[in-house]
Design brief:
CATH superfamily of the largest domain: lambda repressor-like DNA-binding domains
Largest sheet: none
Pfam families: HTH_3 (PF01381)
Helix content: over 70%
Protein name: Helix-turn-helix transcriptional regulator
GO molecular function: DNA binding
Number of domains: 2
Number of strands: 0
Distance between the termini: 44 Å
InterPro entries: Cro/C1-type_HTH, Lambda_DNA-bd_dom_sf
CATH architecture of the largest domain: Orthogonal Bundle
Number of helices: 7
Length: about 110
């Protein structure tokens, strides 16, 4: 039996992948083919992932993220804000990522002290 939390993670993943696929204007079949799935089953498999009927294993989830041009963390982010933050962060050069992370840590420490 699937736990409620595992089900919600699958639903979040499904919704986020579907949204990204539509943003890229890819059909379910086209996404599946980009992931390396056989053409005759690609659309059906993606449809099942998007409806949260089936859960991707870690390798398939990574292939999905790669095909969609996003990080795996983006697909599993619990909120839209966190997903957006992850995407924006990943677009920054490494130097800026380190600076931003240092700033966030500094702000976090300041808020904990209050």
């Amino acid at each position: 039996m699937t736990s409620p939390n595992a089900r919600s993670v699958r639903v979040v993943f499904a919704a986020r992948m579907k949204k990204r696929r539509k943003t890229l204007r890819l059909s379910q079949k086209a996404l599946g083919v980009l992931m390396g799935l056989p053409e005759d089953v690609a659309g059906v498999r993606i449809n099942r992932y998007e409806r949260a009927v089936h859960e991707c294993d870690s390798e398939t989830a990574q292939q999905m993220a790669d095909a969609l041009g996003v990080s795996l963390a983006y697909l599993y982010a619990e909120t839209d804000e966190l997903a957006e933050l992850i995407q924006e962060f990943m677009q920054l050069p490494a130097k800026d990522q380190h600076a931003l992370l240092a700033d966030i840590k500094s702000r976090s420490k300041t808020n904990r002290v209050r």
